[in-house]
Amino acid sequence: xxxxxxxxxxxxxxxxxxxxxxxxxxxxxxxxxxxxxxxxxxxxxxxxxxxxxxxxxxxxxxxxxxxxxxxxxxxxxxxxxxxxxxxxxxxxxxxxxxxxxxxxxxxxxxxxxxxxxxxxxxxxxxxxxxxxxxxxxxxxxxxxxxxxxxxxxxxxxxxxxxxxxxxxxxxxxxxxxxxxxxxxxxxxxxxxxxxxxxxxxxxxxxxxxxxxxxxxxxxxxxxxxxxxxxxxxxxxxxxxxxxxxxxxxxxxxxxxxxxxxxxxxxxxxxxxxxxxxxxxxxxxxxxxxxxxxxxxxxxxxxxxxxxxxxxxxxxxxxxxxxxxxxxxxxxxxxxxxxxxxxxxxxxxxxxxxxxxxxxxxxxxxxxxxxxxxxxxxxxxxxxxxxxxxxxxxxxxxxxxx
Length: 401
What we know:
alpha/beta, 14 helices, seven-stranded mixed sheet, 38% helix, 2 domains, Aspartate Aminotransferase, domain 2, 401 residues, four-stranded antiparallel sheet, Aspartate Aminotransferase, domain 1, globular
């Protein structure tokens, strides 16, 4: 199985015949803004000696910093080479368990199962196009229960909020489900949760963390620094002990750990994160409004267009301005991506290829299991100037019809 991700500007540049730095990347689900880097040059130059020694194999200092920031004293934790390291280690650490994967979702869950030759069963696909997000979330949880009831020896992967649909399951409901099915191992990937708000409202699945739970968190997405490749696995001591047993030593470089320590100790990180959320909200609303008149794009929002929706669904969508004919649910407005259905005469791949000729990279979604044959693209808003270039390019394509 080929691994397909957004953000591959190197492959895109080869296809477009340009330099990777010239690609306008709307395919990667990371923040369009970076934290302040003014002190980074001094930090790196003053710590070059770290290159001549092995990193701390236990990552003890960074773990201590993360515990303090997230108030995570009653659990165990590992630092890894992005959450990807743990996703691929999990089926190896628990070889007797079958993986249950909700579709469509992040493709590396399936790829990890394939590499480990693990048994896997898919649930779905689920597309909350015309129902409220809460209705669709209840459908997902009901389907999970049906699968678990036939066998408790499972690992359930839940991306929450989910990529690429944006569906967010109420953490309290998930917490209750995890407690009830305590023989099942739950892996909750919260890589996008920091975009929604503070941890109290967006999870880390409450403290103390259950013994049958592993939470994955990314260092990079909310702060727009995927190049440092850092992620964490948080869970009960027994569950983490199985992961620790298969973890590769020194999987994170000394410089990555140093940068993780730096970003985790910035005094105003909470304010920086809030600024990122507000920027994304403004630009998503502007993109929806600007692209509303393009006939071949239909925005997939969790409340969809207000036309034809029940009053319940309309209410669930929140009170955001919906002058574009679309409204975003109370959490979806902060997620770093938008999903669009591509209508005839174009296809998802056709739009992807036409934009790439202009040096613009979007995510063609036909590689997601459950979306094969469907025509969707995913767009992650950038800064205002780059977003304007995307809008202009799409309007030029619209003029061709």
